[in-house]
Amino acid sequence: xxxxxxxxxxxxxxxxxxxxxxxxxxxxxxxxxxxxxxxxxxxxxxxxxxxxxxxxxxxxxxxxxxxxxxxxxxxxxxxxxxxxxxxxxxxxxxxxxxxxxxxxxxxxxxxxxxxxxxxxxxxxxxxxxxxxxxxxxxxxxxxxxxxxxxxxxxxxxxxxxxxxxxxxxxxxxxxxxxxxxxxxxxxxxxxxxxxxxxxxxxxxxxxxxxxxx
Length: 213
What we know:
By secondary structure, the protein is α+β, with helices and mostly antiparallel strands. The protein has helices at residues 11-23, 37-46, 66-76, 92-118, 124-140, 154-166, 176-187, 189-198, and strands at 2-6, 27-31, 54-56, 62-64.
């Protein structure tokens, strides 16, 4: 049995949850509150960098890093469309988009959220970086139903949570292709499930939640 160490509100964990739901894979949940010293120590014993998600594969291996975990999950669901194409060249686009979203949307958003928690002024360079990533994605999306092409995959698992939170700090605005993709992501059953599971943890966060969001 797979065992996932995670938190339902964390966007990198949500990436992996979406993949698990897309592949309909059973797993054991270990929710980690990093503010709890005992739970933090327990996670460090599993993954010494004390970051989640971390996946216990059940055969003695521990995997960290959300993209790596998603590619491993593909190997467990051979009868389903892979989230990363088997062809090495075809796999470059979704892997690149994952890196762009992680580094230029998710990471600067985390810094903006930390600034909100601590009362520090937001770094406008982080907002600009997110806007640049939006523009990059807008330019890649013509002719695509999903992030990297016609099939839902790694780029979509990654972008759904990142855009959901980032849009509250840096609105997608007049980027019609990105906005349309975001609408499709929000309607995806796996994503809806992830967001619903995270709702109980919204209290105490610095996000301002619009009605119906």
